[in-house]
């Protein structure tokens, strides 16, 4: 079937009131961004809907790209028809005949956004449904669980018919919620946290703590590859690579072993807060999940948070490992995350880390360190890499 237009719906954006226009413009920019390099299409919008005019492009190739655009609730490949009822009847029949296999049951759903149209929605449903029943004797109407729904949208800007509705990823358009700095390790959790933050409309930058030679160049490349996966959803990601070897060496030499992870993460927070200030990020984000490991108890989170004033977001905090792993598979980061290249956290994990650290004890142990000098050196030595998306691969249905 040669489709004319992909009709895009964006349900959550309709709730944004006075900010609606800003959100729709951001979504339009996202749609244009993912399509412009690959297709000669035109994107336009009208109240409550967005349209991708295909101009001969393959609808399913275009829709594979749209599955990665946050802010889209669903979309449909449509044919655009004249608004007279005879054209609607014939083209709806033509569309349902093209389906393979031919459905056994159907229903017609008409949305008459243009209230000037003289025929009520229920009457359009009846006329079109009767026409299909007479032309296809093997098909029946099922208003509860039909195999196919013939959707008819009668709008001031045009009349559109479709038989397929594909779920989008939902959420908000990237860029409408400000900037967040993600603590990106090489594990399963942090890329999922980054993906979930992108879904809430943030612009994402990432920070990674690299302890060469304790962690290898392959471990750093793995993090770059994970950041690259996130660019499929949010565009270019700036990756801030922090030299962390000296800090970890000093901590290991001068602080109690059971507090190594706690003090190490407090330094990560300090450095991240400074980098966030330099980039304009309004919050930090991490892949921590409550109780998942010893350093992720409430007491530990509280002790680690004491050294920063910037908000710390933990989108996975109430999720278990199975839920997190399921998402990592769906966004295609899981296989990368399980590659056996250790990050700076796993290399220096003590045998018996404290699970309920005290902030006053951590601060006392840190008195053996020149905290400000170590943080300054790490921030000044940070290297910024731009991770971009250049591949032309399709994605599978996600949600």
What does this entry look like structurally?
- With 399 residues, the protein is α/β, with parallel strands linked by helices.
- The protein folds into 2 domains: 5-167, VC0802-like (2-Layer Sandwich); 179-387, 3-Layer(aba) Sandwich (Rossmann fold).
- Helices cover 39% and strands 20% of the residues.
- Strands 1, 2, 3, 4, 5, 6, 7, 8 and 9 form a 9-stranded mixed β-sheet that branches. Strands 14-13-10-11-12-15 form a 6-stranded mixed β-sheet, with helices on both faces.
- Helix 4 (121-135) links the parallel strand 5 (105-112) and strand 6 (140-141).
- Helix 5 packs parallel to helix 6.
- It is elongated, with a radius of gyration of 26 Å.
- The protein starts with a strand and ends in a 12-residue tail after the last strand.
- The relative contact order is 0.12.
- ATP binds at residues 183-184, 208-209, 265, 287, 296.
- Pathway: Cofactor biosynthesis; thiamine diphosphate biosynthesis.
- Residues 60-165 form the THUMP domain.
- It is an enzyme of class 2 (transferase).
- Keywords: ATP-binding, Cytoplasm, Nucleotide-binding, RNA-binding, Thiamine biosynthesis, Transferase, tRNA-binding.
SS-derived structural category: alpha/beta
Give the beta-strand count.
15
Q: Characterize the main sheet.
A: 9 strands, mixed
Strand percentage lies at 15-25%
Pfam families: ThiI (PF02568), ThiI_fer (PF22025), THUMP (PF02926)
Domain THUMP: 60-165
Family: Belongs to the ThiI family.
Keywords: ATP-binding, Cytoplasm, Nucleotide-binding, RNA-binding, Thiamine biosynthesis, Transferase, tRNA-binding
């Amino acid at each position: 079937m040669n489709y004319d237009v992909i009709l895009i719906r964006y349900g959550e954006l309709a709730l944004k009131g006075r900010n609606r226009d800003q959100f729709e413009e951001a979504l339009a920019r996202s749609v244009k961004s993912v399509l412009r390099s690959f297709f000669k299409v035109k994107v336009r919008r009208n109240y409550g809907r967005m349209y991708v005019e295909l101009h001969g492009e393959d609808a399913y190739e275009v829709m594979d790209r749209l599955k990665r655009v946050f802010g889209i609730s669903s979309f449909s490949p449509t044919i655009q028809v004249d608004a007279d009822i005879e054209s609607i009847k014939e083209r709806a029949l033509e569309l349902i005949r093209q389906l393979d296999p031919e459905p056994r049951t159907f229903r017609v759903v008409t949305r008459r956004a243009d209230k000037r149209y003289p025929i009520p929605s229920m009457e359009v449903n009846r006329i079109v449904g009767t026409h299909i029943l007479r032309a296809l004797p093997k098909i029946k109407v099922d208003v509860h669980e039909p195999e196919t729904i013939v959707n008819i949208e009668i709008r001031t800007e045009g009349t559109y018919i479709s038989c397929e509705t594909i779920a989008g990823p939902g959420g908000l358009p990237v860029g409408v919620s400000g900037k967040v700095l993600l603590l990106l390790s090489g594990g399963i959790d942090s890329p999922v946290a980054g993906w979930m933050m992108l879904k809430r409309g943030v612009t994402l930058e990432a920070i990674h703590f690299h302890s060469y030679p304790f962690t290898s160049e392959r471990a750093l490349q793995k993090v770059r590859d994970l950041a690259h996966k996130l660019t499929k959803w949010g565009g270019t990601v700036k990756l801030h690579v922090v030299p962390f070897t000296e800090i970890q060496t000093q901590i290991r030499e001068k602080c109690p072993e059971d507090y190594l992870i706690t003090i190490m993460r407090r330094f990560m927070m300090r450095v991240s807060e400074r980098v966030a200030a330099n980039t304009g990020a309004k919050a930090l984000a991490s892949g921590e999940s409550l109780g998942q490991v010893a350093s992720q108890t409430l007491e530990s989170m509280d002790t680690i948070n004491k050294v920063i004033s910037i908000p710390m977001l933990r989108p996975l905090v109430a999720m278990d490992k199975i839920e997190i792993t399921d998402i990592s598979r769906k966004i295609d980061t899981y296989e990368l995350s399980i590659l056996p290249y250790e990050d700076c956290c796993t290399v220096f994990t003590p045998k018996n880390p404290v699970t309920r650290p005290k902030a006053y004890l951590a601060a006392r142990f840190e008195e053996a360190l020149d905290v400000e000098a170590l943080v300054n050196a790490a921030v000044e030595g940070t290297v910024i890499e731009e991770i971009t998306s250049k591949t032309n691969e399709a994605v599978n249905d996600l949600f």
